[in-house]
Write a structure and sequence with these properties.
By secondary structure, the protein is α/β, with parallel strands linked by helices. It has a single domain, classed as Metal-dependent hydrolases (TIM Barrel), CATH 3.20.20.140. It is about 20% helix and about 20% strand. The protein contains four helices and nine strands, in the order αββββαββαββαβ. The chain has helices at about 15-20, 80-90, 125-140, 170-175, and strands at about 30, 50-55, 55-60, 65, 90-95, 115-120, 145, 160, 180-185. Strands 3-4-5-6-7 form a five-stranded mixed β-sheet. It has a two-stranded parallel ribbon with strand order 1-2.
């Protein structure tokens, strides 16, 4: 649910070929969420892994994962405007790595926004993820799991388990809205 590839996210050293060569056989699909890039990749190295596309957006307050968008909003918006934009397109807004000290994160201000879910992130300490679990419980919203992979060794750490089969980005959006998802360790 949260992977970056170097061809589209300058912070990543993970190539598209390396991604597909390293995906765990326990995963049915992946979601590529490059920074500010939503366009689908037309050539994928493997057709055996379902591949979906979301986007990671930077707001002034923290990073937001968005799924179900047709277009990326203009840059330099505050979080409330980005979330409103995502909801206007009937997508879902997830606080990425909400309590991380290494990433641009919302921390306690996460409670001030209308997120659809919070992320449990495979690249941050367990204590930060525990805070996200407590916040999601208090906010009464679900959790998703994402590796936030920027390299091969960051893949296959945490994923999202969906209660029903996922065949489209719309299925992902519906599952998050219906709370039919949960983070799992791989």
């Amino acid at each position: 649910m949260h992977i970056h590839i170097r061809e589209r996210s300058p912070c990543s050293i993970l190539s598209l070929d390396e991604l597909y060569e390293s995906i765990s056989p326990h995963l049915d699909g992946i979601c590529i969420t490059d920074h500010g890039v939503l366009k689908k990749i037309t050539y994928l190295p493997s057709s055996s892994v379902k591949t979906f596309f979301g986007v990671e957006l930077s707001s002034r307050e923290g990073d937001i994962l968005a799924y179900g968008l047709n277009m990326v909003p203009s840059k330099d918006l505050d979080a409330k405007k980005i979330i409103r934009y995502i909801h206007h397109q009937r997508g879902v807004a997830i606080a990425a790595h909400p309590f991380s000290n290494r990433h641009y994160a919302f921390h306690d201000s996460v409670f001030d926004y209308e997120f659809d879910a919070l992320e449990i992130n495979g690249s941050i300490p367990k204590s930060s993820n525990e805070k996200a679990k407590m916040a999601a419980n208090e906010m009464d919203i679900p959790l998703i799991g994402g590796s936030d992979a920027h390299s091969e060794h960051q893949l296959n750490s945490i994923a999202t388990k969906f209660d029903n089969p996922i065949n489209s980005i719309n299925d992902i959006v519906r599952a998050i809205k219906e709370r039919e998802c949960s983070p799992i360790r791989l």
